[in-house]
């Protein structure tokens, strides 16, 4: 049993939210490496064998660049918000390379941490495959999608080629297929954080399994 995220992990993220500028971050970069980045990479490395019990194809990559941990630097090119840093930690575990495939996601943020699962904004081919699978297997989809989050970007009208009277028509309008379960700061600071995360992933597994089969991802 190992402790990864600490009081200072969450304290750093709260302070970064109040001081989201390069000068403050550079002054506190060693603390970021010690209390945020280092623990996150250790978590990724150590959770890898446990995730194999969920699916042997899940990728847990502890590399500091290009791995499972998202960069803390925000892409501000097309955003009105020019804050340079994210104020949370994001870690993805996909079924194959790339974040736009089915998988799990750990979001670490003070009082807003969660485990998410599914697929966010699949490409046109994947979206069509998922819709066809939902239309063909509505009962199976209903069982798998109990923890779905709201999709604010869903279509207003039924997608072309699908029956407007289909019992799953509201889900067929979706563009994103994700569900999530909240975690407390205390759960992530506990020495059994890995066990808690994997158990939560297992709760969300039916959703990921259904989507993986729909888009032809390995499971």
SSE layout and pairings?
Elements: H1 7-18, H2 22-27, H3 29-51, E1 89-94, E2 103-108, E3 114-119, H4 124-136, H5 138-144, H6 169-172, E4 177-182, H7 185-189, H8 193-215
Question: Which properties best describe this structure?
Answer:
8 helices, 42% helix, 219 residues
What would you say this structure looks like, in words?
The structure is a single chain. By secondary structure, the protein is an alpha+beta fold. It has one domain (7-215): BirA Bifunctional Protein, domain 2 (2-Layer Sandwich). 42% of the residues lie in helices and 11% in strands. The chain contains 8 helices and 4 strands. A 4-stranded antiparallel sheet has the order 1-2-3-4, with helices on one face. A hairpin with an 8-residue loop joins strand 1 and strand 2 (103-108). The radius of gyration is 18 Å and the shape is globular. The model has no long low-confidence stretch (mean pLDDT 95).
